[in-house]
Amino acid sequence: MSKVESGNIIFGLDVGTHQIKALAGEVLADGFINIVGVGTHPAKGMDKGGVNDLNLVAQSIQKAVNEMEVFANCKASSVNLAITGRHVQCQNESGMVPINHHEVDQDDIDNVIHAARSVPIPAERRILHVLPQEYSVDVQERVKNPMGMSGVRMEANVHMITCADDMAKNYIKCTDRAEIKVEQMVFSALASSYSVLTDDERELGVCVVDIGAGTIDLVIYAEGAIRHSAVIPVAGNQITGDIAKIFRTPINNAEALKVKYACALKDMVNQEQTIQVPSVGGREARNMARHTLAEVIEPRYQEIFELVRDQIRSSGLDEQIAAGLVLTGGSAKMEGAVEFAEEIFQMPVRIGKPLQVKGLTDYVNDPSMAVATGLLQYGRAELDETQTIQKMPEESVFKRIKAWFKGEF
Ligand SMILES: Nc1ncnc2c1ncn2[C@@H]1O[C@H](COP(=O)(O)OP(=O)(O)OP(=O)(O)O)[C@@H](O)[C@H]1O
Ligand SMILES: [Mg+2]
User: Residue 103 belongs to a domain with what CATH number?
Assistant: First the structure.
């Protein structure tokens, strides 16, 4: 069977600590993504969202991408790649340009964003994203779209996300070895937010928390824009490790026990219920109260949520997230996680599953697929922007292309 054209198909690759997820999605006119290919493979050689063994990671990527390509019956031309790790950092910056009473055009907007991002960044760091928050034109503040407005000067506030250049290079080395071209890198929680949030939540203020196996990644939106992002290097693997140690059972069994029987709130578990715990060294399996397992899990989830709460507090945005928290990532699937989070945060909490998808929805209707699906939504949003630029007057497009070549975008 010949491979189909991959013209309007976007590819996403989420190299997680636990699992690699590769997706292919066709951009539909109504803003939805038609999922046409899905590939997953257990991640080997990853730790806390970072690459530990280039060859093992490359092999895992290759397998997930091959599976996705067979599914989609097309070759991945280039992928949007998710990146995370404790080296990811953020900062809010602002810039100003004169507009001298003429109408603000696209070039003015580009220039003011350029001014805002022109802060010294250490050579060992790379800018991943410069996300506009709002503009002000003279005394008119909180302008979402200044296009066509008149004034003397314009200011822009932006949220910048940076990462360690070497850590980004390690991801690229793995994709190179797997012979996959990377279109762009996207911070994983930002990707997640593209697939699970509604516009209302962004406006009201919301925190997206992706709890995976190696890291907790979060972004906070307030008044429609991203204000804070962070990575906390604790997640599901620690919980599995605790279960393995405390119940003296191999890691694989601990993982299976966790996924099948664990609960984040011990009060939600029936005291009478018993489970079988396989032992190490050929010893016989033991019976144990399910409540005892929950007693091990609860403090870990408490720690996870308290670390997230500290991040939100330190960002100063705790009063500005009226829509509460949206949890994504595999560890969000733990029974009792939502109830426990609501208790700790005293805010509404929900599980985030990919929205605006069609096609192979059964495969992506899962919080652990939020990042991969978000990579496609992120790609779609960029495509929309390019198409808007293509409709702009020729001279303006020419100037932007010149700016791109100068490395300003
Ligand atoms: N039902 C469940 N209950 C609790 N935990 C679960 C459940 N299902 C999966 N997990 C956990 O979710 C984690 C995997 O989630 P996910 O696929 O989002 O992680 P990842 O993307 O590979 O890792 P990371 O984003 O941290 O690099 C594992 O730790 C797994 O044990
Ligand atoms: Mg992940």
Answer: 3.30.1490.110
Ligand 1 centroid to residue 322 C-alpha, Å: 27
Using DSSP, state whether 167 is helix, strand or coil.
helix
Range of the domain at 129: 89-164
What CATH number does residue 261 fall under? 3.30.420.40
| DSSP string across 30-67 | TS-EEEEEEEEEE--SEETTEES-HHHHHHHHHHHHHH
Residue 243 forms part of a structural domain: yes
- φ, ψ (nearest 5 deg) of residue 52: -105, -30
Q: pLDDT tens for residues 279-338? A: 777 778 889 899 999 999 999 999 999 999 999 999 999 999 999 999 999 999 999 999
Query: Is the residue at 74 inside a domain?
Result: no
Which atom of ligand 1 is closest in space to residue 19's alpha carbon? Answer: 22
Of 164, 195, 219, the one marking the end of a domain is: 164
Query: Is residue 309 included in any domain, yes or no?
Result: no
Domain boundary among 278, 297, 316: 297
Which ligand ends up closest to the CA of 304?
1
The answer to whether 340 touches 15, Cβ cutoff 8 Å, is no
70 inside domain: no
Say how many domains are in the chain. Answer: 2
- The Cα 311–Cα 337 span in angstroms is 18
Is 160 in contact with 129 (CB distance < 8 Å)?
A: yes
What's the burial of 118, exposed, middle or buried (CB within 10 Å: 0-12/13-18/19+)? exposed
**Ligand 1 touching residue 367 (CB < 6 A):** no
| 59 vs 283, more confident | 59
Quote the ligand 1 centre to 120 CA distance (angstroms).
36
At residue 2, does pLDDT exceed 50?
Answer: no
CB 137 within 8 A of CB 146: yes
What residues contact 398, with CB distance under 8 A and at least 6 apart? none
State the Cα angle at 16 between 384 and 280, rounded to 5°.
160
